[in-house]
Design brief:
Elements: H1 3-23, H2 28-31, E1 34-43, E2 48-49, E3 57-60, E4 65-69, E5 74-82, E6 85-93, H3 102-112, E7 115-122, E8 125-130, E9 133-139
Length: 140
Amino acid sequence: MNKKMHFVTLLPILFGLMLAACSSGTSTNNLRDTNWKLVSYGSANNPIPAAIGVETSVKFGADGKVGGNLGCNSMGGDYTIKGSQINFGSMFMTEMACDEPRMSQESTCLSILSGSVDYQLVGDRLTIVNGDYQLVLIRQ
């Protein structure tokens, strides 16, 4: 086989690897229409594990709506994605009082899910960063 034939044979493989590399990073398509469970939250330097026995969920809808429960109350709102940033619109939530640590967890998490935040999606792990604070979620 000559050098030209080797290149032609390798071309589809190289193209596939380039596509895989492009899709392995943060991607709008990978975040839309997904459900997540809280793993940890708070300071990036000293994250707090999610409260044990507390069901949490965050869903990013394909329609640009986000909703879920981060400890006590149902919440929701709009979101848009541009590059590696999520922009959250006004968020609404029910207003029930709950015990600790659910109230603190919810309050901190909702403060992170505000305005424009950075995010990184690696495999089934989503990290949302707002200033020095972060949420870490896993795909459900």
